[in-house]
Design goal:
By secondary structure, the protein is an alpha+beta fold. The chain has nine helices and twelve strands. The strands form two sheets. It has a seven-stranded mixed β-sheet, with helices on both faces. It has a five-stranded mixed β-sheet with strand order 1-2-5-3-4, with helices on one face.
Length: 326
């Protein structure tokens, strides 16, 4: 029984109806230090993400439920990018002292339900109050095959793929920042920025199907992630502009306001879909994936860096344009 104190009441609400703590150790016992989407220690995939009010979410734009879901997705996508499935979480909550009781209660309920519905057991954490709200999660997952997907796995002659469409989150942010009055005309872009939905089991599906290449999630923008993979793998990556799956609503927004959709697709972060490579001996399309869920965008070659082939055949360098939180 929790004592009748504010913090203990809050913790008890977070722990209502939790997912079961499954007493099972990882089957595969790899080790990997910092530098990928996750570290690996004795088979456990480990990642940590923070979401800070005013930087990652705004409650004048999103609901408390959307803010929490976005935070959880940002962690789960890291586990997916390594070909794993999430199992355990340590959660830290800084409650904004200026939140109403309703907002606070909705945040707590969303945290409890968000982890439980994914089968992620909450095994601990911390709570505090401050001037801004913040969510902090350390998420542990397990490998589903003997080999994790890593950024250094790309090899010359691999084919490069992305999951989902590109540019939605950045376009939604642009709309909210510049033309909030038009947000009802582009609900999917706004919704995706505030509460992205991805195929959370994609990475595990890929490794089970025998995919053995590089992989990472698109959190800081495709241009940056391509450069991460190229540098980590010691290869050159060539993509084709005409193959990029730019979202149809991003194209519509860009036409409406005279914007470059390529900028949203290449440099917009918080997409959380996967960028991955597949060797020639594998064919991605028979992998029982929904039509249009992945798109081939280029190839891996000998060399270094990233280039994009324009529709007229011109090749241009792709520089990393990562979002920086500092």
């Amino acid at each position: 029984m929790f004592p009748d104190l504010g913090e203990f009441k809050l913790v008890s609400k977070i722990l209502e109806n939790p997912a079961d703590l499954v007493e099972r150790s990882p089957q595969f016992r790899e080790w990997l230090g910092a530098g990928d989407d996750c570290a690996i220690f004795d088979g456990w995939l480990a990642t940590k993400d923070l979401s800070v009010e005013g930087t990652h979410f705004r409650l004048d734009w999103s609901t408390p439920e959307q803010a929490v879901e976005k935070h959880i997705v940002s962690n789960v996508s890291d586990i997916s990018a390594m070909g794993g499935r999430p199992r355990l979480a340590l959660f830290g909550l800084c409650v904004n002292k200026h939140w109403s009781a309703d907002v606070r209660d909705r945040v707590v309920k969303a945290v409890s339900e968000g982890f439980a519905k994914r089968g992620i057991a909450l095994i601990g954490g911390d709570t505090v109050a401050g001037e801004v709200g913040m969510f902090s999660t350390t998420l542990l997952g397990e490998q589903v095959s003997a080999r994790a997907l890593v950024r250094s796995g790309a090899r010359p002659a691999d084919t490069v793929y992305v999951a989902g469409s590109l540019g939605k989150s950045a376009a939604g942010l642009w709309l909210l920042s510049n033309h909030p009055e038009a947000a009802p005309e582009f609900p999917e872009l706004v919704r995706f920025h505030l509460c992205p939905e991805i195929e959370e089991g994609m990475g595990a599906h890929l490794v089970r199907a025998g995919v053995d290449g590089a992989c990472m999630d698109i959190s800081d923008g495709l241009s940056s992630e391509l450069n991460h993979v190229a540098l980590s793998s010691g290869v050159k990556i060539e993509i084709r502009e005409d193959l990029l799956p730019i979202d149809a609503e991003v194209l519509r927004l860009s036409r409406r306001y005279g914007l470059d959709p390529l900028d949203f697709a290449m440099n917009g972060g918080e997409e959380y879909g996967l960028l991955f490579t597949v060797s020639c001996k594998n064919d991605i399309f028979p992998l029982d994936l929904p039509a249009g869920s992945v798109s081939r965008i280029g190839t891996v070659q000998e060399g270094a860096g990233v280039v994009m082939v324009r529709p007229d055949g011109e090749k241009v360098s792709v520089n990393a344009q990562a979002w920086s939180h500092l």
